[in-house]
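Hi X.,

You mentioned you wanted examples for the new student's onboarding notes, showing what a folding record looks like when two proteins sit in one file. Here is a clean example. The first protein comes first, with its sequence line followed by its structure tokens.
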Amino acid sequence: MLTKIKISLTAFLLVFIFSACNDPVPTELINPDDELTEDNFELELLSPEPDEYVYANGYDSTGIVSPVPGFASLINISHVKNTFNNVTKYKSGGLAIFFDTTRAVRSPRGRVIGFSARILGRVSFNGDSAAVLPYRIKYFDRGIQRDTLLGFRHILYRESFSQIGYTFLPYGSNVDFKLDAFAGNKKLMIPVPDEIIGQVNVAGKPFQNNFRLDLTWNGKGRGRTEIIIGGVPTGRSEVFPILRLWTKDDGKFVIPKNILTRIPFDKFDKIVITFLRKNESYKNENSIGRVYITAQSIHNIIF
């Protein structure tokens, strides 16, 4: 299984380099005896399409990496910390999107890049009304970035340079979600997880034998922590997800060297390590279909 994961990782990175940079690279074989971490973990490769990818999906704010939803409705609560050069900016928000899965949005080449988003009524979180704002995505078509309006979404959002008051949907609490819909009301109670506080220790330099990324956080000793490795490609502004892994919520993880050596760090201006602690569930609701409900604490460390 580990060998299969490592081979897939190399294939993914080759595809990424071709698609993002158009620089040919040699095929690389993998030694199954490469050094591995002592921690057990699961790995998911977030592979883009070679010529088309929903690039600005905002995973660093929502924790959702899939550009095309596998559900009819999304209800999301996120507490986000962005740390760069030892300065942290805080934001919290509630998000609701109701898709019309019968109305797929396609690229000029016919590929599904999303679904139309519709307004079903008034949305509130703990009694505070969410604003109705455009829902747009960015994607690449034959190397050209395009911007497409899919419809509208409901957002309740606050941002601050201070920890005080930014979590208006408190950690460790239950948030009351309500949809006052034209066809009937919907109420849900959403449990919010405890805060996650991450730290990245960088040793050495990329592509050198002494390069290490040691991750630590305030582990809870139960459940799992999700970690996404991403970056900001040179000359662009959006964060690009490279891979995602899950490990025990024990507060420490060393990214294996056989993964680090195959990430093209030289193609990025910045690297982003995202720590996530989340509660998630699916529900089938008659009026809004299959709903993905997620509440999470996110800490993005940028370097």
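Then the second protein repeats the pattern, sequence line and then tokens:
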Amino acid sequence: MKDVYKQVLQFKEKYPTTIGWRLRKNASVVEKHLNPDEEVIYSFVAQKNDNPFNIFGSCVVSLTNKRILIGRDRVVIGYFLNSITPDMFNDLKVSSGIIWGKIYIDTVKEFVTLSNISKDALTEIETEISSYMMREKKKYGITKNENE
């Protein structure tokens, strides 16, 4: 948990207007599901919903050398975990507002919306995720031309 939590704290220090709660608990969900050969490349905090007024869906998003993990600890009992592997990833969309922005991750099976992210952080997040996915999709032999 120390790696993920430290990265999330660094992200929050760099982009303090990003809304995120219970960072240690949410980071522990991601850490719990890391495989032994997995290492965390990048982590950030967001709200896993499309409503800018709903600030209670905090999550920790971690990009590992194998996949994207989205962890949310429930207040009472349990947690939620989403795992997005490169072969399931379709597209990434960024939307910026006055204060906050959103990241939309389109996968084969679902559409993930991450909101209430500092608009200054959007470029960094997009670069990290996009460059990782482009590298990994090449390993799978998936290119844009093959899909058309």
